[in-house]
From TrEMBL:
This is Uncharacterized protein. GO terms for molecular function: protein-lysine N-methyltransferase activity. Transmembrane segments: none annotated. GO terms for cellular component: nucleus. Signal peptide: none annotated. SUPFAM superfamilies: SET domain (SSF82199).
Length: 591
């Protein structure tokens, strides 16, 4: 059956079963856009109505499997059964749902482009180093686990499931960590792509159903206010329309439980009638739908930061009075039409460290970079501060900005590599390229904004910052007299080579404190040195670095004890920050 015939059969089926479509619209199919809806004339606020009898919901699964709950997993199994089972699927009213929904299933896309079914070469070449590539195995495992856990709960006498027939699938799940993606792709994914599962309740069949739902499902609460918040439904014919985030639409229901779509605009001949699934970046579009949008205004980058659970507990307890926001994934999860009350209930739930065992999720959106960066700057400042500092202090703020910029540049690096195009699917290559470029744009904007903030802060506080160039300019005695005098007579006349500006600062502090010779404009350094807390200890690695520093610069200089070097070393560590681009240490005044 051709795609055009399948589309025609679906529309005729809809008309016969009470679907109401507006005048002056036409569903078409071509190889580029697939099925889409075009206006054949002017149409104002076009409305589509799908009767409740054609809505595929959890209640249908309950009517077939007699499961206790109407959760989405049972619904996915039902849909796989309608697609692949060779026998009838009869509900409580003795209706064969397989026959009833055949026109809808026949019209579904034959090609699947979700990242979840890309082959190993495509994943590595096109998505290596990206969020999608890095999370692919975890997401696939999550779906596999959903399938596995439901099947393993079924009794041996189940009239629907014989686990012996999916033994290979069960073994792959049970040996997941030892099984390569090449094997998973060969044994399971190819049957999903080819739509040839060994049996309808195999993982390949379930995965196909899952992919249909993540690309076509609607929230059930539009037609059933008493459903679970996460419950979804399928809407034949309504789901034929393409998505665009700028399309102004409303979804509603009537007393009979029908689903009503209405476009809020006046459309002209040739315009495409579109739906709107909400603000979705290309990462979500590619993962769930298998396509991307050029110049997507809702492109975003997800940053996952893993911290030790005791540190997270410290932040949550809020002993220091800091209001640090640690977002969870649920805060970013919305439907196209949000339920404000439910969202507020979620946000009111008290968080625990276990909510962040997989990391803290931060999202940067291309249209709101400054606002998105604020909680990130806050947490990086917190991680940079010493016990004697606060989030408002200059030094940890500057160090936090630098560390965050490093993290963002590291995130961006794998996205910028060249991609070889040989033997790659053109559509997937183009999608991946658009996705990667969007990620780069968001991260570049974030890096530029951080650089701007740092430059502004340093300019405002230039009198409170000391660089090596300032030492050269305002303290010639250090270069011309004190450094040469520090060198043993047997080595005088040789050049001193410093490994870093950090090393120069440590030696500068040692000599300035010893000789009480700080320039007047830098007298604050002496006061800050005297008040530097002795309770702050160096890490084991830093102590080793201090010993290496001492052996490198003070070997044979008995007049400078290690304890003096260690204290100056610790002072510079805790009163400076390092810049990314110039690898320069800058000493910061405490205000």
């Amino acid at each position: 059956m051709s795609k055009a015939e399948a589309l025609s059969n679906l529309l005729e089926w809809g008309f016969q079963n009470g679907v109401i479509l507006p005048e002056n619209i036409e569903f078409l199919h071509d190889e580029i856009k697939g099925i889409h809806c075009i206006c054949t004339g002017t149409v104002a606020r076009p409305t589509m109505t799908l009767p409740s009898s054609l809505i595929i919901s959890g209640q249908l699964a309950k009517n077939v499997f007699h499961n206790e709950t109407e959760d989405n997993t049972w619904l996915k199994f039902l849909f796989a059964k309608l697609k692949y089972d060779t026998e009838a699927t009869v509900d409580d009213e003795n209706i064969d749902l397989k026959i009833k929904f055949k026109p809808y299933i026949d019209a579904l896309p034959k090609r699947i482009d979700s990242v979840l079914v890309w082959n190993p070469e495509e994943l590595e070449t096109l998505l290596g180093g990206t969020n999608l590539g890095n999370s692919h195995r975890e997401k696939l495992y999550s779906i596999f686990k959903e399938w596995y856990e439901l099947l393993k709960k079924q009794p041996p006498s189940s009239p629907f499931f014989d686990l012996n027939k999916v033994e290979t699938d069960l073994l792959i799940f049970e040996n997941w960590n030892e099984t390569s993606y090449d094997i998973i792709y060969e044994k399971l994914i190819t049957d999903t792509i080819n739509q040839t599962p060994t049996i309808w309740y195999s993982f390949s069949g379930f995965l196909w159903s899952h992919l249909i739902f993540i690309s076509r499902a609607f929230p059930e609460y539009i037609v059933n206010k008493n459903c679970e918040e996460s419950a979804v439904i399928l809407l034949p014919i309504i789901d034929l329309m393409n998505h665009h985030y700028s399309s102004k639409v409303s979804w509603s229901s009537n007393e009979e439980g029908a689903f009503i779509y209405q476009n809020q605009m006046v459309l002209e001949k040739g315009d495409e009638l579109l739906n709107n699934y909400g603000a979705k970046g290309n990462e979500e579009l590619l993962a769930s739908y298998g396509f991307v949008l050029e110049d997507n205004a809702f492109d975003l980058v997800m940053l996952r930061i893993k911290l030790p659970l005791p540190l997270i507990e410290e932040i949550l307890i809020n002993d220091d009075g800091y209001d640090i926001h640690l977002p969870t994934m649920e805060e970013y999860t919305t439907f196209a039409f949000d339920q404000e009350e439910k969202k507020q209930d979620k946000n009111a739930t008290k968080k625990t460290p276990m909510d962040y065992q997989d990391g803290i999720i931060y999202i940067i959106n291309r249209n709101n970079v400054d606002v998105c960066l604020r909680p990130l700057i806050q947490i990086f400042t917190y991680l940079s501060k010493t016990p004697m500092e606060s989030l408002e202090d200059l030094r940890p703020t500057l160090e936090g900005l630098e560390k965050l910029r490093v993290a963002i540049q590291q995130k961006m690096a794998p996205l910028e590599r060249e991609i070889a195009t040989a033997n790659l699917d053109p559509h997937r290559y183009n999608c991946a390229t658009t996705y990667r470029n969007g990620q780069i744009n968001v991260l570049s904007s974030a890096s530029s904004e951080l650089k701007r903030k740092e430059k502004e802060l340093m300019s405002k506080n230039k009198r409170n910052l000391i660089t090596v160039s300032k030492i050269s300019k305002y303290d010639p005695t250090f270069i011309e007299v004190e450094l040469p005098n520090m060198i043993p007579r047997r080595l005088q006349g040789t050049d001193i080579e410093f490994d870093s500006t950090f090393d120069i600062f440590v030696i500068w502090i040692i000599l300035k404190i010893r000789n009480n010779s700080l320039p007047d404009k830098y007298n604050w350094v002496h006061a800050q040195y005297d008040t530097c807390s002795t309770s702050i200890s160096l890490s084991e690695l830093q102590v080793n670095d201090a010993h290496a520093f001492y052996n490198h610069y003070f070997n044979g200089i008995d007049t400078v004890p290690f304890e003096e070097v260690e204290r100056s070393f610790k002072f510079v560590v805790n009163n400076s920050f390092n810049t990314v681009t110039s690898e320069e240490t800058i000493l910061v005044r405490q205000l």
